[in-house]
Amino acid sequence: MWSIGPIGFSAPWLLLGLIALPILWILLRAVPPAPIRRRFPGVALLLGLTDEETQTDRTPWWLLLLRTLAVAAAIIGFAGPVLNPQERQAGDGPLLVLMDGTWAGASDWTRRLERVDSALGEAAQAGRETAVIVLTDLPAGDVPFRSADVWRAELPGLAPAAWAPDGDVVADWADGLGSGFDTFWVSDGLSYAWHDGLLEVLQGAGAVSVFEAQRPVLGLRPARFADGAIALEAVRSRASGASEVTVIGHGLDPSGTPRQLASATFEFGDGEDVASLALSLPPELRNRITRFELSGQRSAGAVSLTDDALQRREVALLAARDEREGLQLLTPTHYLEQALLPNADLIEGDIGDIVLANPDVIVLADIATLAAGETEAIEGWVRAGGILVRFAGPRLAASDVGRDSEAILMPVRLRAGGRNVGGAMSWGEPKALRGFLPQSPFFGLAVPQDVAVSAQVMAQPDPTLASRTIAALSDGTPLVTRKRLDAGQVVLFHVTANAEWSTLPLSGLFVQMLERLAVSSTPDAVTAEDLAGTVWTVDQVLTATGQIEDAGALFGVAGEELAEGALGADLPPGLYAGEDRRIARNVIGAADRLERVVWPADVPVEGLAVTGETPLKGLALALGMLALMVDILASLWLSGRLTGPRAQGVALIVAAMLMVAPEARAQETVEDIEKALLAASELSLGYVVTGNRRVDGTSGAGLRGLSSVLFRRTSIEPTDPSAVNLETDELSVYPFLYWAVTPDQPRPSTEAYAKLNRYLRTGGMILFDTRDADTARFGGSSPNGRKLQELALPLDVPPLEPIPSDHVLTRTFYLLQDFPGRHASPDVWVEAAPADAERADGMPFRNLNDNVTPVIIGGNDWASAWAMDAAGAPMYPVGRGFAGERQREIAYRFGVNLIMHVLTGNYKSDQVHVPALLDRLGQ
Q1: Helix (H) or strand (E) holding 900
Q2: What 3-state DSSP class applies to 29?
Q3: Of residues 276 and 614, which shows the higher confidence score?
């Protein structure tokens, strides 16, 4: 294609016709020829007469120019002008379009598909066979080369994955590739271990071109608790230039509404690919955070889910009985309670019950001896990952625990008696604390000068004493010692937990030390040994675009695989739940870095931008035709034919042709008519289309499941449910509409609201389901609740009330008092009964009106509880175990009662049904 600036021509040789335009100008100037002037006296007799038709003696110059431009426009139009022509890729053989398909390309996935579509369009014009392969979802068998138009139709179904391709799978697939094809590689910009090997294979098969975004890829490492704050680290793939990015902490407020709870800013210096910050939050706020995410980054790598590592801990306090009364400040656990209460949940009880409760930390304050069974129970708990914190005191100093040999629940051996510092018979002045060493969990804490120790229990000298000392006095005497016991640890404070032996409990340092120990009871990183033999279920999954979704019914994951397995379709990133804790598997690991891929010099690399070609042929030919029409009108005007009666007729015809007919209402399509006829001839339950494919799919599956239950249990025989478009569909043929509320669904038009109000006034029923009863109450400020208020504002909704116990919905088919769905909130609202409704004689319920409530509002996500797949199996879990299946059964019964109420009204309020109802009620 030959180009002049931004305009190219598909047939540039036709532009040679422009050379003939000067010749055309000369010819037009010579036709018609100029008249010859001759003097004839008889012409004087014709003076004063007019001729209806005149002819100029010479063509005006402007008319010649108009005709020349018309011919030039036609020549340019037939030459095939194109604005922003794209260079066609060379090649005529098969074309392989390869996409990484990872989370790193999710934020601009639409642009990637547009670039692929452009490449497929070029291949279609060249008649090349193509294949589109996503490395995170490799096909089995040979590369499926097909027509480019077939692949273009399948592009909307492609989606990125929240994990990287499996290197072994990619290598095996590459080994089976043939040759004789070119490759367009749409890269996510990150380097993987298998990159070089795959590139070598593809270059051996043909030419390779790479397309990748020029922006850096950003990621967020898992949040961890360090030095009393939440430590966060962000990584990027390109270290050039300084930049900033905001991190936002999301969680639930006390009302259960998702909110932004915290924010901070990462600052990348020039040449740095890792940025860190410490976020100091109150414990109550820290416990509410469910995830951190980088602002403006729509990818799974920019989201870090939090698990129990940042949550509030359970700490058990046990102390020896103190016979003294009224000395609260001297009780062994007073200062412990004050220090731990803001950061942990305290539990009490005997040792057997506490071990069964499996707390994170057990604190023993001056408890010297334990029964044999208690020692074994605590030992087993510690070895399983717990942390035992012990405090000294008079009883421990006077006991023989750990004297001759090291006790299993003591970190070191103790010397007999104790050490008294600062008394009349003491060894000297009270001792201060020494700074904490780097290997200590207290490292980084400031040591106040006013903290002094006047008494302590002494540790026996031992080869392991130095390695087990995590805090010491200024003279090197151990103050806090620790030893590890399998997955857990035992810590001993060599002073009392109250202020009798030291001023440590009176200082802020005491609170910080306890918080460090309590937080460290749940490790940030788990190993396969820690989770061996356990099975974990997926609670929430993280999509490639960084969205959090319910996992649904997925298979359990072995603990070893969860700890060290690579993310993939069988192990998606998300939140996994065990028996007593939750573990988050994030896309970015604690030590992961994002390395930018470096391509060889012989591989061309382009961006993702696609500038669409704009054909100008039609525009040029239209301009030429317009110039010819103007030429015709100008010629008629010059000849005088635009005046007189004939000109008026021509003007009327032209005006009629130019008049724009008023926009006619679109005719209903044949499909719409057939759909309305089917719904009118047979009972069909309808659901309102929200535009969210997942929600609409659940609504359809839910009504399909409810229709199946109605068919099996009642005389109602519904046909398949219908998706209802409020703008185009006729509503009167649907007795019942299920409307799932989503925050981003569009608001209906004024005409649609008129149809809805007419539908509600003539006996129709709409069930509004906000689907958020698990996180919000009715009337709360949840996104779905606010959207419902917006949607319902123009509707003619009657006054509502919580469904009363004697409402006809409680007895239309089944006797019910609860109306659960996937959630079991009691907040279900119906039309309010008349103020004067009273219970009639002999009736167990009020004499209500005979109208059907036009609106029912709730948030129990009934469609998910009703939903069945094609085989009739439930699609979504409800509750747990037998209780969950019972809840699903009650949800089906509520659906049956609901449809019965729609079709029969309040007939069960008639007195004729009273004996049967009383018999079923047992009255």
Answers
A1: helix 881-904
A2: helix
A3: 276
Distance CA(579)–CA(576), nearest Å, equals 10
**Helix, strand, coil: what percent of the chain each, to 5?**
35, 20, 45
Helices (H), 639-749: 645-658, 670-681, 693-713
When pLDDT is cut at 50, 70 and 90, the band that residue 398 belongs to is confident
Q: What is the token pair recorded at 501?
A: 């032996």
Q: What backbone torsions phi and psi does residue 129 show, to the nearest 5 degrees?
A: -75, 145
Please give the backbone phi and psi of residue 785, each rounded to the nearest 5 degrees, phi first: -65, -40
Most confident of 395-409, 630-644, 647-661: 395-409
Cα first-last separation, the chain: 91
Q: Which strand (E) or helix (H) includes residue 418? A: none
CA distance 132 to 117: 10
For residue 211, the Cα-to-chain-centroid distance in whole angstroms is: 27
pLDDT given at position 646 = 62
User: Is the pLDDT reported for residue 666 higher than 70?
Assistant: no
Contact (Cβ atoms closer than 8 angstroms) between residue 727 and residue 745: no
What is the pLDDT, as a whole number, of residue 336?
86
Backbone φ and ψ of 394, nearest 5°: -55, -40
Tokens of 881: 């175990």
pLDDT in tens, 831-873: 887 766 665 555 555 555 456 788 999 989 999 999 998 888 8
The tokens for 73 are: 């426009």
| The residue count for the chain | 923
- With both helix axes pointing from N to C terminus, report the angle between 167-175 and 195-205 in degrees, rounded to the nearest 10: 20
Helices (H), 344-393: 351-357, 372-383
Q: Are 893 and 867 in contact (CB under 8 A)?
A: no
C-alpha to C-alpha distance for 178 and 198, rounded to whole angstroms: 13
> Sign of torsion, CA 27 29 35 36?
negative
Contacts 24+ apart (CB under 8 A), 552-555: 552/875, 552/876, 552/877, 553/875, 553/876, 553/877
- Percentage of residues in the chain having pLDDT higher than 90: 26
Tell whether the model's pLDDT for residue 88 goes beyond 60: no
By C-alpha distance, which of 65, 77, 78, 83 is closest to 623? Answer: 77
Contacts of 472 (CB under 8 A, 6+ apart): 433, 434, 478, 479
Between the alpha carbon of residue 333 and those of residues 304, 329, 330, the distances in Å are 37, 9, 8
The pLDDT-based confidence of 156 (bands split at 50, 70, 90) is: confident
For residue 32, whether the previous peptide bond is cis, meaning omega lies within 30 degrees of 0, is yes
Q: ∠917-815-906 over CA atoms, to 5°?
A: 70
Query: Which two tokens mark 774?
Result: 């698990």
pLDDT in tens, 574-599: 999 876 678 899 999 888 999 999 99
- Residue position matching structure tokens 């340092």: 509
Give residue 630's Cα distance to chain centre.
Answer: 59
Confirm if 849 and 832 have CB atoms less than 8 A apart.
Answer: no
Nearest to 331 by CA among 339, 319, 317, 341: 319
Helix/strand number for the chain, H first, E second: 23, 41
pLDDT at 679: 67
Residue 495 CB neighbour total at 10 angstroms: 25
Average pLDDT, the chain: 82
Q: Which residues, at least 6 apart from 95, have a Cβ–Cβ distance to it below 8 Å?
A: 119, 123, 128, 129, 130, 131, 148, 181, 182, 183, 184
